[in-house]
Amino acid sequence: MTRRSSSVTIRDVARHAAVSVATVSRYLNQNAPVSQEVSERIQQVMLDLSYKPLAVARNLATRRTQTIGLVLHNMHTDFFAPLLRGIEAVVSEYQYNLLVATYKHTSRPENLSPLGPQNTDGILVYADSFNEEQLIDLCRVKFPVVLIHRTSPAHLKIPFVTVENRTATRKIITHLIETHGRRSIAFLRGPFEQEDSRLREQGYRDALDAHGLIVKPALIIDGEFDQFVAYRNVKKLLSGEGQRFDAVFTGDDEAAIGALRAIQEAGLRVPEDVAVVGFDDSRLSPFLNPPLTTVCAPTEDVGRTAARLLFNLLQEQPAEMATLLPTDIIIRRSCGCPASAAMN
Amino acid sequence: MTRRSSSVTIRDVARHAAVSVATVSRYLNQNAPVSQEVSERIQQVMLDLSYKPLAVARNLATRRTQTIGLVLHNMHTDFFAPLLRGIEAVVSEYQYNLLVATYKHTSRPENLSPLGPQNTDGILVYADSFNEEQLIDLCRVKFPVVLIHRTSPAHLKIPFVTVENRTATRKIITHLIETHGRRSIAFLRGPFEQEDSRLREQGYRDALDAHGLIVKPALIIDGEFDQFVAYRNVKKLLSGEGQRFDAVFTGDDEAAIGALRAIQEAGLRVPEDVAVVGFDDSRLSPFLNPPLTTVCAPTEDVGRTAARLLFNLLQEQPAEMATLLPTDIIIRRSCGCPASAAMN
DNA sequence: TTGTACGCGTTATCAC
DNA sequence: GTGATAACGCGTACAA
Asked: What's the pLDDT score for residue A111?
């Protein structure tokens, strides 16, 4: 390995400043006193040589990367934009780096995670990107992890931050029932692997139960948090026999796009014939036609909170185990309420 | 530095497999023949010890990080979502890591970039996140860079990928003039630092000139690619005297949101009284009211292309200097055309 | 096909 | 306050 790097190293700085490498290092890291005189000399030399410490070398020496990771299972939805924005804000505040990767666990072990102890000091794991086994592995080596939009497996005690799904869903369905007198409410289920989906389904069932309405399996169909899947399945439901419904809870706002279209293409009016409500309050929802009544999830705040928690972990400070961010119902037109002042 | 790490290293593997570190390394990197027998022994030991190579150590040894960076000047717009999606797709294809950071150059030098040779093998620089001086520095050390949504300073010869701005703008303005007979077209200028803004302004001027229309400075106002700025300034323009206009090109789709609102709140109809056209074809534009006629910019493709170029650079393969992705006009309602089949 | 020995740029320990 | 130097974990000439 004779190819000496052309870049200027701490040794060069030390030589030119007529001090030892150790002193330069101390000056750099401010972790031990260095005389005023020497400091100035070093600073000057660093400028002259335009010396830049090589991150990877310090990383090896310190065994820290100054980087945190974010694992997403995909980037297809608009959901991750505010999430990322929140995370990035905190990360840059801490002068850290942010590594972003998509990953979906599979049964095959050779499909190994791009993010982990090899290249980060800690990671943020979104929903079901990692399975329990992977989380166990990380816990075993005491690697800092914060879960986003999922709770921790009970025995692992991994801090997590997610939003209030069940109660909010119960409330918005209750609104449909009590305020608008809807009694046949369809539900577009999200991906079963995602906890959000399951909790929203529970909230849906809660509300129906509480009002003595029967949960009809035929009215629970797959929406997959996806515009096109929702479109197809709502269309199918509409063309079926005896599956009358006067409202639909779309699971999330993406699916609402497809549901609205299917309903309107069938010649039905929203909200008069069929009311529609979603979940997330995505950027699009106020612009849908009619504007979508939905549950506002504070996604950017979720990102910020999760990132802060992770930094607490990194600094071995206490970190809240469970963070459940509150969600609000945003009333617009699609539920049947009159056009409100609360546009956008 | 006596604190021996508890983690298992390549040396442990070598010892247990009764071979040298070099052989283990060769097995790992598949860059030199290793006998079948030894291979199997090593593989078994690695499994037993659940050995994971430390990325940072190989990085130091190879002087490569297996990471590319993306520098954004902010994450406030929805624009970066498809961009990121495109980039991420290519990055994961190459089994690389993606570091994302926001950064806005300032005059103060202490505000140093979070991304560069210290932590990446190459970077993607969006628009004006870096100034020319910073680009010069990177070129000097021959650091691989690809520019996104801006051209290279002439003397630097940095590959870039951006979209066709000027001609597309000229076309969409021409559509307003020729098809819809508009003759007083306002323009919401984007941030001056962004090349996209300036080129779109030129396209606007081109179209007016070509039709013998006078460019009225009073009709060129700031939109800043921002919904709220656009709203305020269009409102102001509408309340002014003698600044009649029958159309507005909003610079981008974000600004269109604000412009539409300002116009409609003033009691004017879009497109009958004032036609509105934008640029980007963001996720929102088909959902605006009326659906927005705009220029479709292939943002995800921009991301993919830029990433591929960067990987070409990394592999010292030839890379196209200039990539100008084509843009298409998407006709919807807001220009005055009848509702077309081309919804969404 | 395998092993030896050193280099990568930095931090951290210890002695002074 | 400062210097000398051993780690850090891995890659890779070179020799065998």
From this structure: 62
